[in-house]
Structures are given as C-alpha cells and as structure tokens.
Amino acid sequence: xxxxxxxxxxxxxLQLYQSNQTEKALHVWMKVLEKSADLVGRFRVxxxxxxxxxxxxxxxxxxxxxxxxxxxxxxxEDADFLLESYLNxxxxxxxxxxxxxxxxxxxxxxxxxxxxxxxxxxxxxxxSMGNAFLGLSLFQKALESFEKALRYAHNNDDAMLECRVCCxxxxxxxxxxxxxxxxxxxxxxxxxxxxxxxxxxxxxxxxSQYHMAVAYRLLGHLGSAMECCEESMKIAxxxxxxxxxxxxxxxxxxxxxxxxxxxxxxxLGVAKCWIARKALDKALDVIEKAQxxxxxxxxxxxxxxxxCLSESIYRSKGLQRELRAHVVRFxxxxxxTELYCGLxxxxxGERNSRLQALPCSHIFHLRCLQxxxxxxxxxxxxSSMKPGFV
Length: 390
Fold this sequence. Notes:
Elements: H1 3-18, H2 22-35, H3 39-56, H4 59-76, H5 79-95, H6 99-111, H7 118-135, H8 139-155, H9 159-175, H10 179-196, H11 203-218, H12 222-238, H13 242-276, H14 280-297, H15 300-317, H16 320-337, E1 355-357, E2 363-365, H17 366-371
Antiparallel strand pairs: 1-2
C-alpha cells in the first residue's frame, strides 16, 4: 500500500469514525497497519487507534498501540513524532491510573529538544501531568500544571485545550471542596463549546455537561445536575463513549442518593415536630415513610436514627411487642454497618463522640482506646495500635 493509498484509507476510517461506525473504522485502520509500508502513514493511523481506543475505554489496547507508535517514531527519527508518541504513552498510562509513569513520560516530553509540535502539544503535556498529579492528590503540583496548560492555551488561541483544562479544574475544585469554582470552570468550558465548538467533536460538550452535573449535585442543585447528566449521557451513548457512560451512571446514582437523603432528613424533621406536639401516631406514619426511603437509598445511619425514634415512641405508648421489634432491627443495622465500638459495645453514630480509626479500619471511641491496655485491635487482633489517618 503506497503513500497516497494509505492517506486515503486513513481518511476513510476517520469519516466512518465520525459517523459513529467505530468498528468499521477500526477495521479500515488495522488493514492500513497490516499492509502499509509508509512509516508516516503508519504513525498517523496508530494515533487514530490510540484515540479511538481511549474513547471506547479500551485502555490496555490504547497503551499497546501507543508503544508501537513510539517504535515507529524512533524509526522515523523525527523529534515531532517522538513528542507526540510520548504524549500518547503518557495519556495511556493516565487512563490506566499509572500516574507515576504518566508524570515520567510527560517529563520526557518536556526534556525533548525544541520541536515544531512543542508549542502545540506543550499545553497537552501539562494537562496530562496535572491530571496525574490530581490522581495522586498532589494538589499544588496539579494546580501549577493546569495553570501552565491554560497559559499555553491562551498564548496559542487554543480554545479546545482551554475547554479540557477547565473540565480538569472542575474536578480539582470538586476534590478540594470549593464547589463554586467546581461549577465555574465547567460552565466556562460549556461557553467555549458554544462559542467555538461547531467543528469540534460532541465529546467536548458531553465532558463539560458531566462536570457541571457533578458540581450542581455537590451544591445541592439536583434538578440542574440531572439535566446536565442526561445531556452528557445522551451524547456518550450516541458516540459509544463507554468511560463517560460509566461516569454518568455514577453521577445519576449520586443524584438519586442525594435526593433520597434530603427527603429522609426532611421527614426526620417532620417526625420530630409531631413528637414535640405529642402527636405520636402522626409521627409514626412519617417515620414509616422515612424508613422505607432510607432503606431504598441505603442510608444506614438514617435508619438507625429512625429506629431510635420509633423505640422512644413505642416505649412511651407501652407497646412492648413493637418496641422489641425496633430494638432488634436497630441492633441488626448496627451489626450490618459495624457501627459499634469493639471495646465498650456501644453503637457509634447515635450521638456526637470522638472517634479513632486504626490502620485495619476498625473504629473505636477515642476514650476507649486511651483506656485500653492491650497492643492489638480488639476486633481483628492486628498487632499495631498506631492510629490511622481517618
């Protein structure tokens, strides 16, 4: 297969890919890889395969093609190709959560001699490095890398890069719990898509909508969160973007859980009001609704609180059978969640108290640990009693 024919087949594959005929596009590109002797063409088709497998969530295959692309770049002895292939290798490891390797490959990119592609790809290198630092919870280094990527984007009028950086900054601020900024940056990304993105892939809109959904949920704006998440999922389904589909499903679950938790807390408040007014039958009706909802969303702590309220009501009414039933269910909940102190036996979460986690992740009252004379965990008998970080 000659140079011109290779180029035509690559373009054919791109047209198929952009029309969501992904498997056909992959078939065309693999044929090019098998038959073409043109090194530049092979390098380009390997780049297409890296991108396609990234968007499908096939990260091991993505890494495999990135490694082959590195070898092709070395055969070409071209610094621009080498920079691009090392960046793809960094991205592949980023997707596989091999963050230390990602940083190492990004540093290799930075250390390469000046190339024509350096100005274009330098920002993407900084972005990938920032994502890796964020994955390692090295927040200051992550922010420095994101700021550097933004400077590249502004200096080169690269709105597409700026959009991606803004989405990453949304994740950054969500993790450090500055939810206003966590929303601001994805909204900025959505503006960039609206202003400049007519020729872009719809994945940029989907990406910005997803990060907006996360921020809206954290801010408690659950209606807006659901709207953004639905828009992102619709695009992800159209384009077969399985990683984004998975993220959207998690976000949907978080939104529904947040809705359920909020409703449970409201019902808890209403029940307490009825108890204060001595309207115990009405309080029990509300508690029953709240208990069903708490079980539906899996909120064990709320279930414990509701059983405690029910116990107090049935005790005051002298209804021993119902009282025993809620006492039993309360202790079953405690056993299921392991929310009890292994030293004093009292449940954890009923009242405000100082707690301490051990390296084995078992939790105790701090006062009980301080009074304990043994050198092992009372629950699992691990020898170290050194407190954990939680």
